[in-house]
Task: structure prediction
Amino acid sequence: MHVCVLGAGVVGLTTAWSLVRDGHDVTIVEARGGAALEASFANGGQLSYSYVAPLADPAVLPKLPAWLVQRDSALRFIPRLDVQQWRWCAAFLLACRSRRARQTALEMLSLGALSKAALHEIVERESIAFDYVRNGKLVVYRDPHEFERARRKMELLVAAGSDQRALDGHACVALEPALAHAQPLIAGGIHTPSEEAGDCHRFGVALADALQRRHRVTIRYETPVSELVHADGRIVAARTAAGDIEADAFVVALGLGSVPLLDALGVRLPVYPLTGYSLTIHHADPPHTPHVSVTDLHRKIVYAPLGGRLRIAGMVEIAGLSDAQRAGRVELLKRQAQEIFPAAGDYASAQTWCGHRPATPDSKPLIGRTPYGNLWLNTGHGALGFTLACGSARVIADMIAGRAPSVDVDAYAYDR
Ligand SMILES: Cc1cc2nc3c(=O)[nH]c(=O)nc-3n(C[C@H](O)[C@H](O)[C@H](O)COP(=O)(O)OP(=O)(O)OC[C@H]3O[C@@H](n4cnc5c(N)ncnc54)[C@H](O)[C@@H]3O)c2cc1C
Result:
């Protein structure tokens, strides 16, 4: 079968790989001039399979007023005259109910486990280099109550098979000596030794290269899709300025670009941009740079060592695509990172980036069928797209092949 995958971010590329593995002919169509240049470009680099708690959680409810007024809050809500923003926020609040948040965490845990196995298969078969490390992840908490809540939540995940343990502040520094400066701030941490990290953009570029050279996949860069042409309940072509691209099946993996294209077909996707920022410090100073991936939960900032570089990523803004405050937020991220790792390297010359997570209100991606028989979705991966891409790709390939995926597909339906 000829399958057209829309989007060459990490989700589209891994989808293409899973489809090729099943023997399909694949064409990828991408608006940009290369692979992984949008949300997949300079993300936090965390392959966080066990730490998949959704953003929507009862614990965020008391923090909502601070999101509105505190300019240095890790999460900011900047109200807009935008129906989509308000609709998304209402659904987010509903997803914060404790039973639903718990169920979501368990569902994402099984998708995370599938993703881990699927990524390992890609890494082994394709020998791609992307500064990949199996270095473990340490989430540090500043507030003792928050640490205690996290410890209790961890017990739920451990009972479901997750490999995690709780550490006090001293044990956190013993595990990661680069945290020594921050020790007075740390109440405790949750360590997941099996977590991994890597450079998502390098992964995407290397995978695109392998798809083209080894698997004869055609990638049509600089080809924005303006419309999906349909007849009799099926998609017949992806319309581009360079002509229509026909295929037997189409997979939409366009991140934020999925929304307008599907809207035009009468399919409303609950996906909204959650803006974040990253810094990349080149030539990071080894004794002062973490070798374990670290998350400072209070600030919602993640740190990942990427082959001699340190990637620092964080902040969540529910503010649409406006860029009015970007310079201020990058400076704030630099200041906050220096609280934890002041001597990691030259912050002044760090490479800066702003990206938009294509997020659903409950943090679960949208994977599966649409009302159009041959149109499939693999989008809305929010803050965990690098982590969940390979598993989501396996699920959609299973569905297209008529096999039963190993996760509950109803949990990922766009109209769940
Ligand atoms: C600051 C930040 C930190 C993050 N940290 C992590 C992390 O540590 N770990 C993790 O797992 N995830 C992380 N994420 C999330 C992750 O980066 C995203 O979930 C993931 O990159 C989404 O991939 P995607 O392929 O769905 O979207 P994208 O990478 O955005 O790809 C979609 C592609 O579709 C193309 N496109 C859009 N519209 C059209 C069109 N009409 N025609 C043709 N092409 C089109 C775009 O050009 C783009 O290349 C982070 C995100 C941010 C912003």
